[in-house]
Design goal:
The structure holds 2 protein chains of 2 kinds. Chain A is mostly helical. Chain A contains 12 helices and no strands. The chains are: A mainly alpha, B mainly alpha. Chains A and B meet through helix 3 and helix 7 of A and helix 2, helix 6 and helix 8 of B.
Chain lengths: 309, 208
Amino acid sequence: MWKVSSGIFLGWSLGANDSANIFGTGVATGAVKYRTAIWLTAVFVLVGALAEGPKVMTTINELSRIDPVAAFCCTLAAGLTITTLTFLAIPASVSQAIVGTIVGAGLLAGRVDFTLLYKVVVCWLFTPVMGIVLGYLVYRVSASILNRTVKSITRRNLIYSTGILVAGSYGAYSLGANNVANVTGVYVSAGLLLPLEASAIGGISICLGVLTYSKKVMMTVGKGIVPLDPFSAFVVVLAEAVTLHIFTQLGVPVSSSQAVVGAVVGVGLVGGLRTVSGKMLLNITVGWIMTPVAAGLIAVGLLYGTRFI
Amino acid sequence: MFKKFFQQGKKEQAVIDKTAAHIELLIAACKGFHEGLIQEDKSRVLQVFHLEREADTIRREIIAAIYEGAFLPYLRPNLCRFAELVDRVFDDIEGAANHYSEMEIPEVLKEDCVRVAFYNIRICEMLLICFHALIEGNELREKTLAVRIYEKKIDDIKFEMKRILWKLPVQGFWEGRILAEFVDGLTAISDIVEDASDYLHIINVSMK
């Protein structure tokens, strides 16, 4: 069972990093207390992981059949990649890292489903696009409904404050459902864990990351997006949650960070604002290429290393 | 965790009620000042001091309620700033009342002073209308425009008064200074009310 330890580490770092995409703006602006945010995130991540996590695990399993040692090397390589790229301030996605490592390990063993890989890569490209479209549409539709039906400032205040909590909880659910497969999915493929066991262990490890080490990132991300008003913050989280949920139904692990960036751009487009810079686009592109390639290479290196042990 | 939801905005309603009471008190102060000027009754004008003390208490209660968690943090600075601006109007009225108690308004300025005091009532009433419109989610544009129109009218009278004031013979430094400060205080109220109405507009925009 020691082979699962690297998956738990990966889950912990995912929880510590990606929870900021859910309640970052809410906590940084004071709309949600940090303690409330982390407990809601932890509970709903676990619920999402147990309820819908196995859907994405199927894709991870079918991408390549790997043995238990390879599974350990894949999650370790993904964890190392994420840590290194985060240190270099390059936006990194756990989904892309783990897929990169599985493809690396699969290439070494000569077993990669390229048709499925093509589907996954297309979904990655569509993640920010869907974030933009949903951010724009959710903003337009909900603003139009609210402007017609809820005029009182007290009621709006109540709707925004509870809306951020509800959308954040849904976001946490979608994060758990979509990303738990990244953490422990490979162990199902390797025959080490059953899908439900993998969902539970993955979900708990993400929860641990959320509960123990998410404050710093949450504040950094939240304060970076602070110009958002409460309504926009609510729309961004809701659009991100829906994006993740849609890709969960398609069985593809995607990046919550890219979904949230897309949603911010979508909300910005409503007001004709320039919310994305060329530098940000370059950073995302570099992250897209660097993450799976670097993770794949590290996994291959680790697997070569295990042959000499 | 969901205290706010189950309370159904009670804290927010308390802030709204207190803010409305704050502005109503301001209207009462302006009315008292206006009547005092017409009747040349200094004791009537000096009642503003009591109203100012009452308004101070209300302002403290508003700010305490906001910091105890009423409204989203995003709105709190603007709501606090609004309460402080209303309080600044009280300070100016109090200052003008104090100056009035120490002087006699020259005949040539009397009519203009009464006109400004009258428009001060109107602009404060318009501020209350703006505040209710904000709370009920009605359109604010025309109401804030009305505030700006009143402010412009008072500004025009102020420039007229200043021109008269500069030529007015005074017996000593303090007589001149007290008169100038009285006119400044009386005519500055509309500027602060205009700023306050701008804050209402900002709050309205930020909640849409």
